């Protein structure tokens, strides 16, 4: 196994690799390593090269990460970012295939945490139909509210925080994010806000505490139930409501503002035109939109990669902020400001991983070790992605102009960045 890894590595192996056959490679004194424990793990790696095969082997327990906690394998994944593979010469590839043998080249059944590939999800409807979107959201968000409480912390906020200073805590940064969105939208007491993709209602309750009337919509039944109970406990029923609903089924119009925090990743790039047209139609003249979403650093690719698609966000799509801005403009909204919070998301993910590690035993008891492993791998890997500019996080602020092109806004930004 180790010789095969050496043959495929372009620049050497930067960490320690050991295998069930007794072979090893990489620095003997490396702080981090991989331990391939079984032939089934080798089959996972051989039949799905890349992140999907590694995820299958790791989630199934056939691959162990050495030197890191499964709740936060960031340091190892960061080191693996320097591991580059190459296509071996035909003779070497043939020799590798012979050494593995026929049995190891037969794909084992994937772990039960994995969903079907996109082309086999047709039974759930066309991609980004209401039924299929609901199923995708159910897969990711209806894991367990208790599990999310352990990982996200008291704010129950599953989107990028905004750190006001280096020493800010995760909770302070999440509160500051809601403050930033609230201020950018120029919300005030008596206004009406629509929060689409509202999660557990963090933005809904933040605005309602300040006298704003808010409707939140989420496709997750567990999120909606948790949010409605939180609203009741805070006595905010006269101001706030969270519906278990597709945002496209909201019929009220004339909102002073729309916030969309972490929804755009789920709706599909082809649906951007309809998405922004919906928002414009539901805003009053002079109303504002704050779109907060993960993006790519370019505007060419939309796929999220096989691991993310099969284990984390089925049917998720990412594109550059330029496409988001152009789509908002094409719908007739005027974009007034945008900013990239990429480094903030890396810090947010570090905070979530720290929570997962601190509550590991309870999380495993709640959802099982395999699912907990998926989350540690996904969040730590995403942290590496934000740090290395594989992904970004953009807030785009737009306004619905009147018929004469008037925005009715101050000449300069009115919020505290």
TrEMBL record:
Domain of life: Bacteria
Limits of the Polyketide synthase-like methyltransferase domain: 147-398
GO molecular function, one term: methyltransferase activity
GO annotation, biological process: lipid biosynthetic process; methylation
Assigned keywords, A-Z: Lipid metabolism, Methyltransferase, S-adenosyl-L-methionine, Transferase
Matches recorded under PANTHER family: CYCLOPROPANE-FATTY-ACYL-PHOSPHOLIPID SYNTHASE
UniProt protein name: Methyltransferase domain-containing protein
InterPro entries from the UniProt entry: CFA/CMAS, CMAS, MeTfrase_dom, SAM-dependent_MTases_sf
Family affiliation: Belongs to the CFA/CMAS family.
